[in-house]
Amino acid sequence: MLSLNRQAPRQAIALISDHADPAADVGMEEAGGQNVYVRNVGETLAALGWQVDMFTRKVHSDDPVIVQHSPYCRTIRLKAGAEEYIPRDRLFDHMPEFVASFKSFQTAQGLNYPLVHTNYWLSAWAGMELQKTSGIQLVHTYHSLAVVKYQSLRDIPPSAHNRLRIEHEILEKANCIVATSPQEQETLRSLVSTAGQIEVIPCGTDTDNFCLISKAHARARLNLDRQEKVILYVGRFDPRKGIETLVRVVALLKQQNVQNLKLIIVGGSSANMPDGEERERIENIVNELGLQSLTVFAGRVGHDILPLYYAAADVCVIPSHYEPFGLVAIEAMACGAPVVASNVGGLKYTVIPEETGLLVEPRDIEAFARGIQRILTDELWVRKMRKQASINVYQRFSWTGVTMQLHELYRHILARSIMHEQDWSYKMPSINKSA
Ligand code: UDP
User: Fold this and answer.
1) Three-state DSSP class for 393?
2) What residues line ligand 1, using a CB cutoff of 6 Å?
3) What is the share, in percent, of the chain residues with pLDDT greater than 70?
4) Average pLDDT of the segment spanning 383-405
5) Is the pLDDT of residue 425 over 90?
6) Strand ranges (DSSP E) for 174-294?
7) What are the pLDDT digits (tens) for 53-82?
8) CB-based contacts of 251: which residues, under 8 Å, 6+ apart?
9) pTM for the complete prediction?
10) Bigger pLDDT: 154 or 37?
11) What are phi and psi of 130, to 5 degrees?
12) Could you give the domains of the chain?
């Protein structure tokens, strides 16, 4: 006899993240915000009742094929090209093998994913290939948009043509695009296509981990002097992150006689890794400007310790030339660190000028220096800002709230696919949406 209390089986869904391994250490090589996004979304979706398989390319031969994060959430590493680091600009040729490996895994495990959420343009291509041969519902998050990124790059990679074409196609062919800010939605509409469905659901952060911590406690834990004026950068070493701008800003502040400056640069791999070239370039600029004694290259720091760095900082600077969303901004603000960020992309959405931080034009060394000076000298305003910044992140960008919106979106798309509805009448629920 059937038990009436029997739990409904979990619905399996696939997240595809070609180069950004959700199980990887973040902050090195090319591992950054996308890895964090996919991992957190996957784990939170599993907690909400889905069975989540996250697919990525296998990069190291000694890495396990499957990493089980929690009972219903795992990373699966698929064979696609040699098991070694391949820059993402050269991954497109390996994507047919990625799709074949995905299909083989699905068959071998007897699994069926009615919904696939792809991340980045290479995964979008894989998703569209799967869409051709099965009735999957396709959701896509860009993470980075070529039409904007190439405006701030001097060297356009050979993969540009394919990337621009696929980023256009996915907007028109996916069941829904998840834009992570209204700014991204606007860009998609004005520069990519007016066709296709877009919903704005931001990235999030773990507000239990990134939260207000006393500055004195954080400085004591990190052995930092209480008198020092700590200017913090957190992120990968990549020219588009604008670390050079920040170093030049610190040189200008020093020239202006600001005392007790300390620049802490968090992130980056050890020597001989792919991001080493940019790190070396930045180290050379630090040396040329005579900033060695006040600069610390802290290397990669895990999310367990990172809240201490944000809490210890007087200001966290995000000098990116282009930033699709910028997780570092919300992590810093969650920990109460005032932010001075470039007025670009998702940073325009997450940072509220004068209330949670300041926005200045990218590459504008004087403007960054002025913003930092204001923060270093106005203690009362900063105290207020610390609280406002933390509350703002808690209300708008917690993973739980953000993933709840994805959960509702998936449910709606799947229900619609079953009912064969023609019109899109979905209204996003008002959980944790922007104020
Ligand atoms: N990060 C980290 N350790 C580091 C440097 C960076 O964990 O040493 C993390 C950081 O906390 C954030 C992510 O890497 O979660 C960077 O995401 P963001 O969106 O700011 O930039 P992206 O890497 O996507 O360009």
Assistant:
1) helix
2) 26-27, 32-34, 36, 234-236, 266-267, 300-301, 303, 306, 325-328, 331
3) 91
4) 95
5) no
6) 176-179, 198-200, 229-234, 261-266
7) 999 999 999 999 999 999 999 999 999 999
8) 289, 290, 291
9) 0.90
10) 37
11) -65, -35
12) 12-204+398-419 (3.40.50.2000), 215-396 (3.40.50.2000)
Structure-token pair, residue 200: 């704005």
**CA 390, 302, 298, 234 torsion-angle sign:** negative
Cα separation of 263 and 297, whole Å? 9
Structure-block tokens of residue 107: 């068959």
Please report how the helices 243-255 and 276-288 are oriented relative to each other, as an axis angle in degrees rounded to 10. 10
Q: Identify which of 325, 327, 342 to mutate to test ligand 1's pocket (most ligand atoms within 8 A of the CB).
A: 327
Q: Is 366 exposed, middle or buried (0-12, 13-18, 19+ CB in 10 A)?
A: exposed
Ligand 1 centroid to Cα of residue 32, in Å, is 4
Query: Residue 83 gets which letter from DSSP?
Result: S
pLDDT bin (cut points 50, 70, 90) of residue 277 is confident
Element (H, E) at 358: strand 357-360
Q: Which of 157, 202, 206, 205 is nearest to 324 (CA)?
A: 202
Question: What is the separation of C-alpha 39 from the centre of its chain, rounded to a whole number of angstroms?
Answer: 11
